[in-house]
Write a structure and sequence with these properties.
Shape: globular
Order of helices and strands: HHHHEEEHHEHH
Number of domains: 1
Strand order of the largest sheet: 1-2
Radius of gyration: 17 Å
Helix content: 40-55%
Oligomer: single chain
Number of strands: 4
């Protein structure tokens, strides 16, 4: 696991698009790819994303797609961490306020990487979670609103890769994911798993459950603040 991928969140971090007080224009994901293709240093790409206040609602398989399009590992790791930060912050807002309403630039931007587009009105017109009980507004609808019981067993990236290499069916891997706690996975690790042959459906399930764990743990934490 990358040491900087920490799910204990600094709540007022500048990484979070939701913390931006004034309207901004989200950076299209196509611009991230174009900068990467042009040879821009990862630090420059990250700064452009940060300055725009943009986060992206990335599925697990999306990181491998961006990697194949030329986006480098430090940028992938930043994209995952900023998304995780926003999901945590949106969970806090859903419990303690403020409500962000229809502020589409405040939320992680929806993506369609098959057409390399992002943003409300482009990849999606509706803010997810607005009408779904148990899911904070802005958290993608593909994130489960409830995990049910989670066992004490923890599954690591190496376990998933090993199962994939041994030909364990996707349905069996996903079944194990549903009864275990997941190790944190960075953007570059998601990309590496896809390169190693882990299926998109498994990668997407990992990301969905990681985020659901953040929502579930955050809701319990912030309820104690009230």
């Amino acid at each position: 696991m990358k040491p900087h991928l920490i799910f204990a969140i600094a709540f007022f971090s500048a990484l979070s698009g939701c913390a931006i007080p004034a309207s901004k224009t989200p950076l299209p994901v196509s611009d991230v790819v174009k900068m990467s293709e042009s040879g821009a240093e990862p630090e420059h790409v990250i700064e452009r994303i940060r300055a725009s206040g943009t986060t992206y609602a990335l599925r697990g398989s999306d990181f491998g797609k961006l990697k194949a399009a030329g986006v480098l590992d430090p940028v992938l790791d930043y994209l995952q961490q900023s998304f995780v930060n926003d999901v945590n912050l949106l969970t806090r807002y859903s419990v303690t306020g403020p409500r962000l309403g229809g502020c589409s630039f405040c939320y992680p931007q929806p993506l369609d990487l098959n057409h390399m587009v992002s943003g409300y009105g482009v990849a999606s017109s509706e803010i997810p979670g607005q009408h779904r009980p148990g899911l904070p507004a802005g958290v993608p609808d593909w994130v489960p609103s409830s995990l049910g019981g989670i066992g004490s067993k923890r599954i690591f990236v190496s376990d998933i890769l090993d199962m994939s290499r041994r030909g364990v069916p996707n349905s069996q891997i996903i079944g194990l994911l549903h009864h275990a706690r997941l190790q944190n996975v960075s953007g570059s690790e998601f990309a590496q798993l896809r390169r190693e042959g882990v299926s998109d459906v498994v990668l997407d399930e990992i990301q969905a459950r990681l985020l659901a764990e953040i929502v579930q743990a955050g809701r319990l934490r912030y309820q104690n603040w009230i």
